[in-house]
Write a structure and sequence with these properties.
Largest sheet: 6 strands, mixed
Number of helices: 16
CATH class of the largest domain: Mainly Alpha
Number of strands: 12
Shape: globular
Strand content: 5-15%
Structural class: alpha+beta
CATH topology of the largest domain: Serine Threonine Protein Phosphatase 5, Tetratricopeptide repeat
CATH architecture of the largest domain: Alpha Horseshoe
Order of helices and strands: EEHHHHHHHHHHHHEEHEEEHEEEHEEH
Distance between the termini: 45 Å
């Protein structure tokens, strides 16, 4: 369960006074107040917030096997659980007890709680399917995902067949997404194939209710097809998705065409020379260079905290692959200002290049493009459609930021991804294959 922050502002005498509700602090005074398994399951979030509040979590590298939570968090949850007994916890709190034991890295005890939960709440097929799905979610969602244990519960769920199609779809999708983050290609493919099979066994009412989940299954499947080198197969997945869900919910056409497909359209295109009004930090006159794998990244100098994790990811990829032949090239544009201050185009380009080289820590080639502007009769200033030649050449919508395009040594686009920790392992693996050619 998520813990929400609530904020409010009070305007008094011309001054804005802000206050924010705080999560409970866990210490020797507050711990005795905790009485339930649910509170113990939330101790992971409360204690984690206390630990990270004065540290930079956004730029931390996430290992393939997951980022193990700080030991102080594990210890706090264990202290909380030491006051509870499996035999006396009410049935309504057993799932929370499972989640708490997972947070405490006590996986055998989580299995024991799950066994009792299956006995108490799994008498009917629907109840059993629900418990098995929740066990998969809890174990796959651990800070260090316990996929081997999760797969045992998922195997039981798969054995229930079409009657448990909804739970099978949800559980398989969770495992596929975690395997995607870890870069576990075989498990990713196996789980997402199971999710697709289950999605086709849903009842009509389930299909109407879970259109968004069905769409997510198709998206993760398309990502897997791209990872194994079958971009046409990824596009066919969206054709099948459109035929399945648009008759049920017509608005899904906008989601498929406007949100899902654009990331896949550059795949297979041949990229010619990047265009720039001015280059900075370039050691070659033309990028991408034939014979070199090139990671083209669309960046935006106005993007702040939202982009820091992506920049940290780029620094790690550069350290890992630049010496092996990877060219990392940033693509940016001018806006007419820098940090809310109007600047001349030349000054803005210089300031932008300096920002990425020094503050962001990426002294790599950066292509700055100054788009043309036209003034409409009503006074508005806009960019014409041909103002973004690099986006048009690659097939990327204008305005993207922290969006990476991997170009193979022969100049063909092999992979595209948003820069976030969920994509780092997969992108790293594809780059490793590219520089090995």
């Amino acid at each position: 369960m998520s813990i929400r922050f609530f904020g409010w502002a009070v305007l008094s005498c011309g001054f804005a006074v802000a206050a924010t509700a705080q999560r409970p602090a866990l210490n020797d005074t507050t711990m005795p107040r905790i009485q339930t398994a649910w509170q113990c399951s939330q101790a992971r979030f409360w204690s984690g917030t206390q630990y990270w509040r004065d540290k930079r979590l956004d730029t931390v590298a996430y290992p393939r096997a997951g980022l193990r939570q700080p030991q102080v968090v594990t210890d706090q949850v264990r202290r909380c659980l030491a006051r509870l007994s499996l035999e006396t916890v009410p049935v309504r709190d057993l799932l929370a007890l499972v989640e708490a034991h997972v947070a405490a890295e006590q996986y055998a005890l989580a299995d024991s709680a799950g066994t009792r939960l299956l006995r108490e709440a799994g008498a009917t097929p629907e109840g059993r399917a629900d418990v098995l799905e929740q066990m998969v979610r809890a174990l796959a969602g651990a800070s260090v995902p316990q996929l081997t244990r999760a797969e045992r519960y998922r195997a039981e769920l798969e054995a229930m067949g079409a009657s448990a199609a909804l739970g099978r779809m949800d559980a398989a999708l969770v495992v596929a997404q975690v395997a995607q983050m870890e870069g576990s290609l075989a498990l990713w493919g196996n789980a997402i194939a199971s999710a697709r099979t289950a999605s086709r066994q849903l009842t009509d009412s389930q299909r109407r209710e879970r259109v968004n989940t069905i769409a997510m299954v198709a998206l993760v499947y398309a990502d897997w097809r791209v990872r194994v080198g079958d971009a046409p197969g990824a596009l066919r997945a969206f054709d099948a998705l459109r035929a399945e869900v648009v008759p049920i919910r017509p608005s899904m056409e906008r989601t498929i065409s406007g949100e899902f497909l654009p990331r896949f359209l550059p795949l297979g295109r041949t990229v010619s020379a990047v265009r720039a009004t001015r280059w900075f930090n370039n050691s070659a006159p033309v990028y991408p260079r034939r014979g070199h794998a090139t990671l083209l990244v669309f960046v935006d100098q106005s993007c702040g905290a939202d982009c820091y994790p992506g920049y940290a990811m780029l620094r790690r990829l550069r350290a890992r692959y630049e010496a092996r032949g990877l060219d990392l090239v940033l693509l940016a544009r001018t806006f007419g200002y820098f940090r809310n201050k109007l600047e001349t185009p030349e000054d803005e380009m210089r300031l932008t290049a300096n920002y990425f080289a020094t503050q962001v820590g990426l002294p790599v080639p950066i292509a700055l493009w100054r788009p043309s502007m036209i003034r409409l009769p009503d006074g508005r200033v806009v960019s014409p459609d041909d103002a973004y030649p690099n986006e048009a050449m690659i097939g990327v919508k204008p305005g993207q930021r922290n969006f990476a395009v991997l170009v193979m040594p022969d100049g063909v686009v092999r992979f595209t991804a948003w820069l976030n920790r969920g994509n780092e392992s997969v992108l790293s693996d594809v780059i490793a294959e590219a520089v090995a050619r």
